[in-house]
Design goal:
The complex is a heterotetramer of chains A (about 750), B (about 260), C (about 170) and D (about 450). Chain A folds into 4 domains: about 150 residues, Phosphorylase Kinase, domain 1; about 130 residues, Rossmann fold (3-Layer(aba) Sandwich), CATH 3.40.50.740; about 190 residues, 3-Layer(aba) Sandwich (Dimethylsulfoxide Reductase, domain 2), CATH 3.40.228.10; about 140 residues, Beta Barrel (Barwin-like endoglucanases). In chain A, about 30% of the residues lie in helices and about 15% in strands. Chain A is built from 23 helices and 30 strands. The longest helix of chain A is centred in the last third of the chain and has 15 residues. Chain B starts with a helix and ends with a strand. In chain B, the strands form 4 sheets. Chain B has a 4-stranded mixed beta sheet. A two-stranded antiparallel sheet of chain B has the order 2-3. In chain B, a hairpin with a 6-residue loop joins strand 2 and strand 3. With about 260 residues, chain B is α+β, with helices and mostly antiparallel strands. Chain B has one domain: Alpha-Beta Plaits (2-Layer Sandwich), CATH 3.30.70.20. Chain C has 2 domains: about 90 residues, Alpha-Beta Plaits; about 60 residues, no CATH class. The radius of gyration of chain C is 25 Å and the shape is rod-shaped. Chain C has about 170 residues and is α+β, with helices and mostly antiparallel strands. In chain C, strands 2-3-1-4 form a 4-stranded antiparallel beta sheet, with helices on one face. Chain D has one domain. The radius of gyration of chain D is 23 Å and the shape is globular. Classes of the chains: A alpha/beta (about 750), B alpha+beta (about 260), C alpha+beta (about 170), D mainly alpha (about 450). The interface between A and B is large, with 99 and 82 residues.
Chain lengths: ~750, ~260, ~170, ~450
């Protein structure tokens, strides 16, 4: 029950066929756009000055993998919009995605290969040629021990991931890691544990009537925000007759919490108990009548709501009401993420939440949990995803001098790993660090060789969104403008290195484009081609920007053995004594900057935080009452101290946060990454305790206790908003209960996917 | 046609109130507050489409933000029953716009699409329109803005870059409307098809809270959603007759 | 060449007295030159009608019409619908009309003054600087020696300190 | 009617005034120099900087897009008000005590109007296009918007400027003539031109009298309309706190109030530094004092009324507005205004106070400070509390703004100093009229009756 059903979707793909040749003709049209206002003395025929050309591609700003259509004029990218044909975002796009243009045109991009000329970290580099850079790197690689080579990449999927596999395979090292701060390790682990599922399922928010979200900020950064927002909108007003109900359980109100009908603060880390409590109710009330009901009743016996109420601080009535509503509503869906998935008991919690879904029988149903088939390619990436434990392992190896060469690709652990992990120190122990990053970020600052890669708008690539939308989807990302600088696409760099190292028989390709084409030829073949022409297929995929296949999973529910018996949630562990560190630190991915990658984009810096309207900078959200008790006023600069360090940020009183929780957005506090990001705000990750969730090895980012101390200074954050109360002026009006509004499910778009050409 | 004929015909025709309500289009936007999540995608989309300058921290600190569409947020209640409600605020394209009457040089007036247009080249910067606008959605260029190279390559060639001393505001992406009309003309159509044109904010809104269209066309989506029981206008009591219609947020637990 | 008899007096009454007598003696209208407006001139030399009021009135009238024409007329010629108001918007246009009325009224008054008082003076006329300070002068133009002596006599009799003969052209 | 210690003769006033024009002491040049330097340094330099940088040089923000520039504009317009207006009223009511002071009062009108016009230029975002506010045929197919209160301003102020300059000029023609006869060289030529060949014949006096009266009659309603229109710039908006019917009378009263205070100040200065002790006397201060007292009471009444309507409306917008004005960020300024314009003037009840010069001077200055504050508050408090609370923001004037305020005063002083050297700053012939007119023995003094 995905958002786009097969017929509709294939129709869309077909529709994309109009005006074939977008990416195809691109090869000729790639010129350097800077010299002339209309940079084509002899323009290629599909370019007519003054007429926009749209290219479909894939958004590279976050792991959601939305399809984008980029509007170009005279060879320059002007606007990014969602690709209406792409089932994930269906023409829509988030703020971060919009800002992709400022990644492309960022004034602080690395303009060509360089080598470290001074000490590491003091930002002294000299330009070299690609030839030079590649051969240097190749030498080091050749000289390195086989497993002394580590490749640390941002989470990539599709054929680029496969290329990495091949390359590392040839090098004979198994240290290929994909590292993303926000990667939902616990979620994967929980699903593996509960369903024995390798892939994440598709959470069908669109068709659900009741969403119970345990801390998952599904509208901002959880899995696939834009897709969820689409679903949210539709569930709210899209279905005639009834309106979906949304309940958010989290210690600090997130955007999803604000959007929800009900926001329930529960003690951090006790979400799992709550889930079990609700499950207990459902079973106890006999709402579940599966043949294994007995087993459930047994294992849930000691999670009576009074006990859970005591643990979680949520009243019994609320728990029982939630249980009733959840069981009543059909379909109902429970999801968990964010803080709930970042405690030391995360996996237990998520398993318990899965249990809820199981008990209301929404598995494989519309508006429930729909299993995804394996992605067409690059599925193995999931096992390569580095969690905190893996990184720790890498760090130890580095310290022990087992790592000779580290290749970093556009990921920034120096920023997204806690100080306590000792990553920066470990880097010092690595003889050679090669960075493929397009920006001078904290990690790249430590690198010896810089081989800057293209931004996603200049490079060839493809992407198979994970979690998918219930059926295999692939999208090709094509260059929409000529490369601005002397950079190369990651794929080409790898291929270049492979060439230098003489892996020619295993990796014969000379360009990422060829590699990609070969890869897609296989996809084309498995699709039992009607039209026997690959090039036509290739063009169509390029033009429509997306490819899909009607292969679905059967909806038979497989629940891993022993799960029901083993159902239990351990108490969350916190680093630091309550006495010394009275507050629990709730650090969350910022709306604008995600995990900090958006900090160098002026648009994102100036996008007011929706909840506080703050721009530029970091702040500490506190409950007004607590702040009053501690004598803090808005704008007082305080030091937030954990056992592992301290940062400074101004206090912002926030009406919807638990009294013993302080929240700090992640994303600021860079000491590199260009003029817009540098020396601005503070980075809460730095002071996180290295607590992990034993079951998934995931960093328990919400498991740190902190203490607040006044500095006596004031540093009121810059806000765009003034008074935030309506004073009875009826600006935001609301109507009670059921509104008989005729919904309108929107499928329209204003983007002509037409290339003005013959 | 002599000046006197013009005068005579003009006199006959234009003595009556609001005569220009008989214009070709009446572009309208509805904003479903029950769908709006406050994510801010519309804000960035607008910045990208309309060459809205990067103001910089120092200027923002002095209260000179430039966001033709902004997300206003209003808290209700206290912990633990605190509620946060978002409302996107943009130029309401009022039919009885206070800002229009006050401009001494007619730099802002009503065009034949029922749009409240701002003529940057004509503006002399009295800023009175901003004072008269009850929605405070007019933004003034307090200084010349610049883009660090090569950021300026992103600038939309269909939209001007405003100089210092000029007032600016949301235009409903008039450049897109023009384009759509040209397309329609090329296809030999008299009118623009519903949904053929969307402002950047509407186009990108992830939860599809924004709907745009011509309310003169009764079958258009915007007309339908205007007829929704939840439809209301902000500060309606001022009788500015906005072309932006909001749909009330649904408070599920109230009635 | 016409010559004038001019008598200087210390006080306005004597001057008026002199003027009255001159008039009685059949001299063409004598002229009184004084540092301040002397009251009661009318009863001596007969009332004066001023045309200025007409200037003011018609000027104002013209201004009113012109003002409304300016506002309403051009509003129709240059169509700039604003704020849902009708193109011919009476109340604000009345304000324009009002201002224009006064403006033209003032200008017309000035014009009237200049014309009726024959300003600015092109050719030089009979004048004595003392009359600008604290003396009151009475002039009457008299052609011929004998008529001058007659006037002089009357002036002296009325108490003139000095009597001069001034011919137009010097001053 | 003036100090009795010595019988003044026509020649005295004559000589005094002429001396005030031709004999120029060192003190004068020093003052003038300082004024000009101050004007250049504090007005033109910051202004040129602002032209280069943009209005951002000032402290305004969104939504408080108006600031001290407009406040100064209203202030100067207001100051311009009692000059000509007062002089006209007194001329028509034919009161004697006016005659010694009205010339300089009118001059005040003229120059404060000029400064006000400058403030408009400073206020504009793109002053180099100000001519677009003037209706002139053009190829752009564009035309000023006659529905705009700002354009009413343009019309009204143009008219007012024309009117009052003509009025002051026409009143001085006889004096120009008088001075003409006593000067030589370039001054002589200048006055020859200015006096249009005035002789002082009975006809000329008669015509002048009529024209002058007509002008007075025309200018009184004009002056009233001018400040009403200025008030409509605000009152015609729908901003809570501005959208009030009382605004027109409020502004007019305020204008005359500050203007009268201004006259007191100027009188004092003239009296002291141009040695017009005999002509500008206690009497003038006494009468002006009475006038001030009445005006201050009127002013206070309207203020109370304003608060009341705000409170009585009961709407959130007006109510917040009110609270903000009384207790908000700008509250200290508000109370300062009340003190200076509402409370302090009550001293004028005592004759002794009215007839003592220095206290009157101080009071008049205090009143004008208070009135400036009023104008500032009218803008700042309302605009920073608009309809949407989310857009609320406080506005603090920048250095540039403050310096331009100082500079504008300097500009006014400069103009005035130049004026006193060109125009007879005390009307010679009208003072003469008030003097004892030489009489012929045995004739009833029917002159004395007027």
């Amino acid at each position: 029950m995905a958002n786009v059903d097969r017929r509709e979707f294939l129709k869309l793909v077909g529709a994309g066929g109009v005006g074939a040749g977008a990416g195809f003709m691109l090869a000729e049209s790639i010129k350097h756009p800077v010299e002339y206002l209309i940079p084509y003395p002899v323009p290629p025929e599909e370019f007519s000055p003054g007429i926009a050309t749209w290219y479909n591609s894939v958004c590279g700003m976050c792991p959601a993998g939305c399809g984008i259509s980029v509007r170009t004029r005279e060879g320059r990218a002007k606007k990014i919009e969602g690709n209406p044909l792409h089932p994930v975002n269906q023409g829509r796009l988030c703020a971060l995605g919009q800002a992709g243009l400022q990644v492309l045109y960022n004034p602080d991009r690395l303009t060509g290969p360089m080598i470290q000329s001074g000490q590491r970290g003091d930002d002294k580099f000299v330009k070299i040629t690609w030839e030079d850079g590649l051969s240097r790197t190749a030498e080091r690689l050749a000289a390195a021990r086989r497993d002394g080579i580590s490749f640390l990449s941002q989470g990539v999927r599709g054929h680029l991931a496969e290329l990495f596999e091949l390359f590392m395979g040839e090098l004979g090292s198994d240290r290929l890691l994909h590292y993303d701060f926000g990667h939902p390790h616990a979620l994967y682990a929980a699903n593996r544990k509960f369903f024995g599922e390798h892939q994440l399922p598709y959470y069908d928010i669109r068709n659900t009537r009741y969403l119970l979200s345990f801390g998952a900020d599904y509208l901002t950064n959880w899995l696939s925000p834009v897709h969820h927002a689409l679903g949210f909108g539709h569930s709210r007003q899209g279905n005639d007759g009834h309106r979906g109900r949304f309940v958010q359980i989290e210690p600090k109100m997130s955007i999803s919490g604000a959007a929800a009908d009900e926001w329930i603060p529960a003690r951090p880390g006790t979400e799992g108990f709550l889930a079990l409590g609700i499950a207990h109710h459902i079973v106890a009330d006999g709402r579940y009548d599966g043949d294994d009901a007995g087993k459930w009743r047994a294992s849930l016996a000691d999670w009576s709501s009074d006990r859970v109420a005591g643990l979680s601080g949520v009243s019994e009535e609320t728990i029982s009401r939630l249980a009733r509503e959840f069981a009543h509503a059909e379909p109902a869906l429970a999801i968990a993420g964010g803080a709930a998935a970042n405690h030391t008991n995360a996996v237990d919690t998520l398993v318990a939440v899965n249990a809820l879904n199981y008990l209301v029988g929404n598995i494989g149903k519309a508006g429930g949990v729909v299993f995804n088939p394996d992605p067409v390619t690059g599925g193995s990436v999931i096992d390569r995803q580095a969690n905190y434990r893996t990184m720790q392992n890498l760090i130890e190896n580095a310290r022990d001098g087992n790592i000779d060469v580290l290749i970093v690709n556009n990921t920034n652990p120096a920023f997204t790993l806690p100080r306590a992990s000792g990553f920066r120190e470990a880097l010092a122990a690595i003889p050679t660090i090669v960075s493929l990053s397009s920006f001078m970020d904290e990690t790249t600052l430590m690198a010896d060789v810089l081989l800057p890669s293209h931004t996603y708008l200049e490079a060839w690539g493809d992407d198979m969104p994970q979690p998918g939308v219930g059926f295999p989807v692939g999208a090709i990302s094509q260059p929409v403008v000529a490369p601005l600088y002397n950079s190369r696409s990651t794929g080409d760099i790898i291929l270049g290195l492979a060439g230098k190292l003489g892996f020619n028989e295993a990796i014969p390709w000379t360009s990422m484009e060829d590699f990609l084409k070969d890869g897609w030829r296989q996809i084309y073949e498995r699709g039992r081609p009607e039209s026997g022409d690959f090039d036509a297929f290739w063009r169509d995929v390029l033009v429509s920007g997306v490819w899909g296949e009607n292969a679905r999973r059967d909806d038979s529910v497989v629940i891993a053995p022993g799960v029901i018996e083993g159902l239990a949630v351990s108490a969350p562990q916190f680093s630091g004594e309550r006495g010394d560190y009275p507050f629990i630190l709730h650090s969350y991915l910022s709306t604008a900057m995600y995990d900090g990658r958006g900090a160098n984009l002026p648009w994102m810096q100036e996008l007011p935080d929706p909840m506080t309207s703050i721009v530029y900078g970091t702040w500490v959200e506190m409950n007004p009452v607590t702040a009053k008790d501690m004598g803090f006023r808005d704008g007082d600069l305080v030091t937030v101290t954990s056992r592992f360090g301290s940062i400074e940020a101004p206090v912002v009183t926030f009406p919807a946060i638990m009294p013993d929780v302080v929240a700090i957005p992640i994303g600021q506090g860079h000491n590199a990454l260009g003029r817009y990001a540098r020396n601005r705000g503070a980075n809460p990750i730095e002071i996180l305790a290295p607590e992990t969730d034993s079951a998934s090895g995931n960093l328990a980012t919400s498991a740190t206790r902190v203490a607040l101390a006044a500095t006596g200074r004031r540093a009121a954050p810059v806000k765009t908003g003034g008074e935030s109360r309506q004073l009875g002026r009826g600006i935001v009006q609301s109507t009670g209960g059921r509104s008989g509004s005729p919904g309108h499910s929107a499928k329209l778009n204003s983007i002509p996917i037409v290339v003005e050409s013959a | 046609m002599s000046i006197w004929d013009r005068f005579a015909s003009g006199w006959r025709e234009f003595r009556k109130d609001g005569y220009y309500e008989e214009f070709d289009y009446a572009w309208t936007m509805t904003i479903d507050l029950d769908r709006c999540t406050g994510c801010g995608a519309c804000v960035t989309a607008c910045q990208a489409e309309n060459n809205i300058p990067i103001v910089g921290e120092e200027q923002l600190e002095r209260g000179r933000e430039m966001q033709w569409i902004r997300i206003e947020r209003y808290w209700e209640g206290e912990y633990p029953n605190a509620k946060l409600k978002f409302i996107p605020m943009l130029c309401q394209q009022c039919d009885a716009a206070p800002c229009e009457t006050v401009c001494p040089v007619t730099a802002t007036y009503h065009n034949q699409d029922g749009l409240n247009v701002q003529v940057y080249n004509r503006c002399i910067g009295t800023r009175s329109c901003a004072v008269y606008c009850p929605y405070t959605v007019r933004y003034f260029n307090y200084n010349d803005h610049h883009w660090d190279a090569p950021l300026e390559q992103q600038l939309n060639p269909d939209v001007t870059v405003r100089e210092k001393g000029v007032m600016e505001k949301c235009t409903f992406c008039v450049q897109r409307i023009r384009q759509a009309k040209d397309h329609a003309k090329d296809d030999g159509r008299r009118r623009v098809r519903d949904g053929e044109v969307q402002p950047a904010c509407v186009q990108t809104c992830p939860s599809e809270a924004l709907v745009f269209g011509d309310r003169k066309d009764a079958s258009s989506r915007v007309s339908k959603s205007m007829s929704d029981a939840r439809a209301y206008r902000v500060l309606d009591e001022l009788n500015t007759q906005p072309s932006v219609v909001y749909l009330k947020k649904v408070d599920a637990d109230a009635d | 060449m016409a010559s004038n008899a001019l008598g200087l007096f210390r006080d306005p009454d004597s001057a008026l007295e002199a003027a009255r007598r001159l008039k009685g003696a059949g001299f063409a209208r004598p002229e009184l030159i004084s540092p301040i407006p002397v009251h009661g001139v009318e009863d001596v030399l007969g009332p004066k009608k001023s045309v200025i009021r007409r200037f003011t009135f018609f000027g104002g009238l013209f201004g009113a019409l012109a003002g409304f024409a300016l506002a309403a007329g051009t509003a129709v010629l240059y169509l700039h619908p604003t704020g849902g108001r009708p193109i011919i918007t009476i109340p604000p246009f009345l304000i324009i009309t009002y201002e224009m009325t006064i403006l033209c009224g003032i200008l017309a008054t000035v014009l009237g003054f200049l014309i009726s008082a024959r300003f600015p003076a092109i050719r030089e006329r009979v004048y004595v600087p003392e009359a600008g300070v604290d003396r009151f002068a009475v002039t009457v133009d008299c052609d011929g020696e004998e008529r001058f002596r007659r006037a002089e006599a009357i002036l002296r009799e009325a108490g003139a300190e000095t009597v001069r003969s001034i011919s137009e052209g010097e001053s | 009617m003036q100090t009795e210690e010595r019988q003044l003769q026509f020649t005295d006033i004559h000589n005094d005034v002429v001396r005030s024009l031709v004999v120029t002491g060192r003190k004068y040049y020093i003052t003038l120099g300082c004024a000009i330097v101050l004007m250049l340094a504090c007005f033109f330099f910051p202004w040129f900087y602002q032209l280069y940088y943009g209005i951002g040089a000032a402290g305004m923000n969104s939504p408080t897009v108006w600031g001290t520039y407009l406040a100064s504009f209203i202030f100067w317009i207001g100051l311009s008000h009692s000059g000509t207006l007062l002089s006209c009223v007194l001329h028509i009511t034919n009161s004697q005590w006016r005659k010694a002071m009205y010339r300089s009062a009118e001059a005040m009108t003229l120059f404060s109007l000029m400064v006000a016009a400058m403030m408009v230029m400073v206020h504009l975002g793109r002053p180099w296009f100000i001519h677009w506010a003037v209706p002139y045929p053009n190829q752009m197919g564009l035309w000023p918007n006659f529905r705009s209160p700002l354009l009413f301003d343009v019309m009204a102020i143009t008219t007012y400027l024309t009117g009052s300059s003509i009025f002051i000029y026409m009143g001085s023609i006889p004096d120009f003539a008088a001075v003409r006869d006593r000067t030589a060289g370039w001054r002589h030529h200048m006055y020859v031109l200015l006096s249009l060949g005035w002789r002082g014949t009975d006809t000329e006096w008669h015509r002048l009298g009529w024209a002058y009266t007509f002008l007075a009659v025309l200018i009184i309603p004009l002056a009233v309309s001018v400040h009403s229109i200025v008030s409509w710039d605000f009152a015609m908006s729908i901003v809570p706190g501005l959208h009030q019917t009382i605004f027109a009378p409020y502004f007019v009263v305020g204008a005359i109030y500050s203007g009268t205070a201004g006259i007191v100040t100027v009188m004092f200065v003239l009296r002291k530094y141009m040695n017009f002790e005999q002509y500008i006397t206690k009497l003038h201060f006494d009468n002006l004092g009475k006038l001030l007292l009445v005006l201050s009471l009127l002013w206070s009444y309207i203020n109370i009324l304003e608060l009341f309507t705000g409170w009585y409306s009961g709407t959130s917008t007006e109510y917040e507005q009110l609270k903000y004005k009384l207790f908000g960020f700008y509250a200290p300024l508000y109370w300062e205004m009340i003190l200076f314009c509402g409370v302090a003037p009550l001293l004028l009840i005592s004759n002794k106070f009215r007839t003592s010069f220095v206290p009157m001077l101080l009071l008049s200055i205090a009143i004008n400070i208070g009135m400036y504050t009023e104008r500032f508050l009218i803008i700042a408090t309302t605009l920073s509390r608009q309809y949407l609370p989310e857009s609320w923001r406080v506005y603090v004037p920048s250095l540039v703004e403050l310096s331009i305020i100082v500079g504008s005063v300097a500009m006014f002083v400069t103009l005035f100093l130049l004026f006193v050297k060109i125009f007879p700053s005390v009307s010679i012939y009208e003072v003469k009229e008030t003097m004892k007119i030489p009489k012929r023995k045995g004739i009833p003094e029917w002159q004395a009756t007027h």
